[in-house]
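Please fill in the sequence for the structure shown.

STRUCTURE ENCODING:
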């Protein structure tokens, strides 16, 4: 897997993951449908930010990482 996310993209994903987790655990509750969706989205954002690779970017042909 080659990286396809820039540093800024990874930071934005990390911030979004935190927002999704806060919404899930502090606002709506993790046992609601919306809470579960937020947890899953937060986990995906956290994982893609950690590894620097987004499968959806690969399918669409987007590459925000400028270093080859």
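FILLED IN BY: designer on duty
SEQUENCE:
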């Amino acid at each position: 897997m080659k990286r396809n996310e820039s540093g800024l993209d990874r930071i934005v994903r990390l911030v979004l993951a935190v927002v999704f987790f806060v919404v899930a655990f502090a606002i709506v509750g993790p046992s609601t449908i919306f809470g579960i969706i937020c947890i899953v989205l937060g986990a995906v954002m956290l994982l893609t930010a950690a590894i620097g690779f987004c499968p959806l970017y690969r399918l669409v042909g987007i590459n925000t990482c400028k270093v080859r």
